[in-house]
Amino acid sequence: MIKAIFIDIDGTLRDSNRNLSARTMETIRKVTEKGILVILCSGRPRKYTEQISRECFASKYIITSSGGNIYDYEQDKILYVNEMNKEAIIKLYEIANSEDVRFIMNVGEGRVVNKVKHPDQEKQLEEDIREFVYKNDVVQCTIADSNFDKIKNLIPKIEKVENVEIKNRHKSLLDAKFKDDKTIFCDIANIDSNKGNAVKKLLEILNIKKEETIAIGDDINDLSMFEQVGYKVAVDNAIDIVKENADEITLSNDEDGVAVFLDKMLKEMEEN
Predict the structure, then answer these.
(1) Is the pTM of this model over 0.85?
(2) In what order do the strands lie in the sheet with 110-113?
(3) In whole angstroms, what separates CA 261 from the centre of its chain?
C-alpha cells in the first residue's frame, strides 16, 4: 500500500513553461482523496513551494531548498532545518560578486539576493554579508547568471569551498544535449543536506516505511530522493543518470508524465 509520493517540481511536475496542467492538478487531487500524501520536494524556497503545493492539491508537507527544510504549512511548523555553514556562505558570496553574477540565499520562507530579479519573490541584501549570515539561518545558496561560461568557470571555485557542495545545477552543465536557457545556476548547501536525507527524516516523523513510498524526478538532486523510497520514477526529459536509476520512465513533463504515472497507479489500485 502506497502512503506517500515525493515529487520534484521544476522539470518534473511542471512543464517547460513552468505551468501546471489541469490534468496534473486533477490527478493529484484524486490521489490525495485516496489518503496518499503527495509531498513536493524542490530546490525552491518555502513560500514558493507552498504556493505550488496548494495549487495542485498536494499535502501540507513540503521539502524545500534541496532538502534543507521540511515544513508543515497548515500548522506553520518547521519540522527540520539544515542551516548552512556561515563562513562558507560568505566565501560563496565573494565568488559570485567577483564575476558580478546573482547570489541567492534561501532564508526563512523566501530569498535574499545581491541583485533583485523577481521583486515578488526576493528581497535585496541591504547589509554587510557577514552581519547578515550571522543573524539569519540560510539553508541554501544559488549562484546564477544568463551567461553559461561565467557559471561553468565558477564551478571549480565553488567546489573548493569547505563544508558545502553543489546539490543541483542547470542540466546544460551536466549534459551537452540540454540547451542553456535564460538562467544557468548552481544550488549549494551543506554536504549532508539533500532531498534524500529530508525524505528519510519526514518518513520517520510520519512513521511511513520506505516500501510504502514513491519518488518522481528528473535531475541530479533527485537521486538522493530515489535512494530513500521503494519505487523510483523518472520523467522522459530526465538526465540519463536519473533514468538509469529509475524503476520506471513515464512521459516527459511536457506530456503530463506525472499525471500519466499517477493515473496508471490509481487504475491498478482499483483493479486490485
Answers:
(1) yes
(2) 122-124, 110-113, 102-107, 138-145, 184-190, 164-169
(3) 20
Domain end (from 129, 157, 190): 190
Beta strands (DSSP E) in the chain are: 4-8, 37-41, 61-64, 69-72, 77-81, 102-107, 110-113, 122-124, 138-145, 164-169, 184-190, 213-217, 231-234, 248-249
Comparing C-alpha atoms, which of 243, 202, 236, 234 is closest to residue 215?
234
Report the domain count for the chain. 2
Parallel/antiparallel/unpaired status of strands 4-8 and 213-217: parallel
In single-letter form, the type of residue at position 130 comes to R
| Contact partners, residue 214, CB within 8 Å, separation at least 6 | 2, 4, 5, 6, 229, 230, 231, 232, 233, 265
Domain end point (choices 134, 163, 190) = 190
The candidate with the shortest Cα–Cα distance to 242, out of 4, 11, 3, is 11
Ordered per-residue pLDDT tens for the chain, 272 residues: 999 999 999 999 999 999 999 999 999 999 999 999 999 999 999 999 999 999 999 999 999 999 999 999 999 999 999 999 999 999 999 999 999 999 999 999 999 999 999 898 899 999 999 999 999 999 999 999 999 999 999 999 999 999 999 999 988 888 777 776 778 999 999 999 999 999 999 999 999 999 999 999 999 999 999 999 999 999 999 999 999 999 999 999 999 999 999 999 999 988 87
Q: Identify the burial level of 80 via C-beta atoms within 10 angstroms of its C-beta, where 0-12 means exposed, 13-18 middle and 19 or more buried.
A: middle
Domain that holds residue 245: 4-81+193-271
